[in-house]
Amino acid sequence: MSVTARVERRATIADLLRENGRPLFSFELYPPRNEEETQRAWFTVRRLESLAPDFVSVTYGANGSTRDRTIKITQDIAETTTLRTMAHLTAASQSRDQLRKVIGSYAGAGIRHILAIRGDMPGGPMVPWERHPGGLANATELVAMIKELGDFCIGVAAFPDLHPQTRDADLDARILAEKASAGADFALTQLFFTPAHYFELVDRVRSRGCDIPIIPGIQPVTRLGQIERFAELSGAQLPAPVVARLEAAGNDPKRVRAVGVDIATDLAAELLAGGAPGVHLYTMNRSQATREVYAKLRPEFGRV
User: Fold this and answer.
1) Is beta strand 113-117 parallel, antiparallel or unpaired with respect to 153-158?
2) What's 223's DSSP letter?
3) What is the mean pLDDT of residues 95-105?
4) What are the two backbone dihedrals, phi and then psi, of residue 17, each rounded to the nearest 5 degrees?
5) What is the mean pLDDT of the segment spanning 88-101?
6) What angle do the packed helices 64-80 and 35-49 form, to 10 degrees?
7) Catalytic residue flag (residue 19)
8) DSSP assignment, residue 36?
9) If DSSP codes are grouped into helix, strand and coil, which group holds residue 191?
10) Which one of 2, 101, 265, 278 has the fewest CB atoms closer than 10 angstroms to its CB?
11) Structural domains of the chain sorted by starting position, each given as residue range(s) with its CATH number in brackets
């Protein structure tokens, strides 16, 4: 029996969220850009596979070889590992026909989970959005397209720290509710560091009568340089207490990583205690910090 066949008969992420009786734990990877990164990515995949996460996801580049690498590694993970695999898909810079072909490629590999996101323009999240002439207007339309093309379990993005272009909390809640109405089964948040922002987002979405599960996304900060990178990607600075804890660790990489792991673990524990349905860890294709956070949250897996 092939791995793909086994995956096909598994419960979906939506099923697990409804029926599992415990929080879900999942990891996010990104497509490698060269042979060295490919080796590191597979090393990470195999180490994370041993932790038996509920699923892994692979980020998506909308252009050229980046897109092709995403499709290939996502298919390879789905076909050669035991991992429940979710593919990302963005509407940015792609026509409807291109999107349909990618969805078909995923379906052909036995992948039945897709994270549908609008995506950013080349240059990052602060570059104004431009619709492809033959493409879709937003993630809601992408969810509807995926729903029409097959029996997929669909995830979408959510923004505890507000979408960097609009900075409108009520609009973020309304759009998430609209994506749920279009067929989304669950949401994953962008990374954030203030628990109250997550709970406020959940409350705003629930006030609209929408019960979509919202899984918080967390990234262990293991290098001081990631502080600037986080600000660039999210449009928001790291909270001052987080920066202070990291800076207090000095220039010792091991101390910085240990502090970053503690911050991520504390954040995850508070979110889970408050009712979050799981934790999605952004790995940056490096397994050690992720495994350390995971071991603290799920001590039954023992030492890392």
Assistant:
1) parallel
2) S
3) 94
4) -65, -35
5) 92
6) 30
7) no
8) H
9) strand
10) 2
11) 3-299 (3.20.20.220)
Interhelix angle 240-248/253-273, rounded to 10 degrees, is 150
CB 176 within 8 A of CB 156: yes
* Among 28, 130, 178, 300, the one annotated catalytic: 28
Q: Which residues contact 174 (CB under 8 A, 6 or more apart)?
A: 208
Pair 261, 267: CB distance under 8 Å: no
> In which band, very low, low, confident or very high, does the pLDDT at 222 lie, cut at 50, 70 and 90?
confident
CA–CA separation, 198 vs 119, rounded Å? 21
The pLDDT value given to residue 235: 60
Residue 238, pLDDT score = 76
The pTM of the full predicted model, rounded to 2 decimals, is 0.91
302 against 24, higher pLDDT: 24
| Residue 249 clears pLDDT 60, i.e. is over it | yes
Closest by CA position to 74, among listed 62, 60, 58: 58
Is the distance from CB of 105 to CB of 71 less than 8 angstroms?
Answer: yes
Range 134-146 average pLDDT: 96
Q: What's phi and psi for 255, nearest 5 deg?
A: -70, -40
Fill in the amino acid letter for 231: A
**Beta pairing partners, 25:** 279
Give me the residue label for tokens 């749920």.
180
Annotate 62-75 with b (16+ C-beta within 10 A) or e (fewer): beeeebebbbbbbb
* Statement: residue 304 has pLDDT above 70: no
Mean pLDDT, rounded, of the chain: 87
Q: Angle 195-206/169-182 helices, nearest 10 degrees? A: 60
